[in-house]
Automatic annotation (TrEMBL):
Main location: mitochondrion
Keyword line: Disulfide bond, Mitochondrion, Oxidoreductase, Protein transport, Redox-active center, Translocation, Transport
Organism: Dryobates pubescens
Protein name: Mitochondrial intermembrane space import and assembly protein 40
Coiled coil is among the record's keywords: no
Length: 138
């Protein structure tokens, strides 16, 4: 027998095995592709960068947010043969900013950091390029 009880602001529901054997009668609502609050991913349909994307991990805000946005925008809109090769100064400025806030942007072991940074940057660049190609082909 299932039952429910209230404890302060919390509502505790106890369900039995029999309760879970009955199929759900809930109706699913189709996603609205025009919902402005729907997650759009890193690159918006118009090709702009979605600074609110959780995939950025909050890097677009905080003390180095502007440097991050500058570096990432430069990379995203880069038309160089080696994408982003014209953005070294922006990425350097971002790195210098991050070094001023070691509590917010902790440094890892130097060798480990170089290896991880290279892999993270490579993954981000690959993802951004793939998103860009996907956007172009749409």
């Amino acid at each position: 027998m299932s039952y429910c009880r209230q404890e302060g602001k919390d509502r505790i529901i106890f369900a039995t095995k029999e309760d879970h054997e009955t199929p759900s009668s809930a109706e699913l609502v189709a996603d609205d592709p025009d919902d402005p609050y729907e997650e759009q991913g890193l690159i918006l349909p118009n090709g702009d960068i979605n600074w609110n994307c959780p995939c950025l991990g909050g890097m677009a805000s905080g003390p180095c947010g502007e440097q991050f946005k500058s570096a990432f925008s430069c990379f995203h809109y880069s038309t160089e043969e080696i994408k982003g090769s014209d953005c070294v100064d922006q990425f350097r400025a971002m790195q210098e900013c991050m070094q001023k806030y070691p509590d917010l942007y902790p440094q890892e072991d130097e060798n480990e950091e170089k290896e991880k940074s290279s892999k993270d940057l490579e993954a981000a660049l690959t993802e951004a390029s793939a998103d860009e190609e996907k956007t172009r082909s749409s």
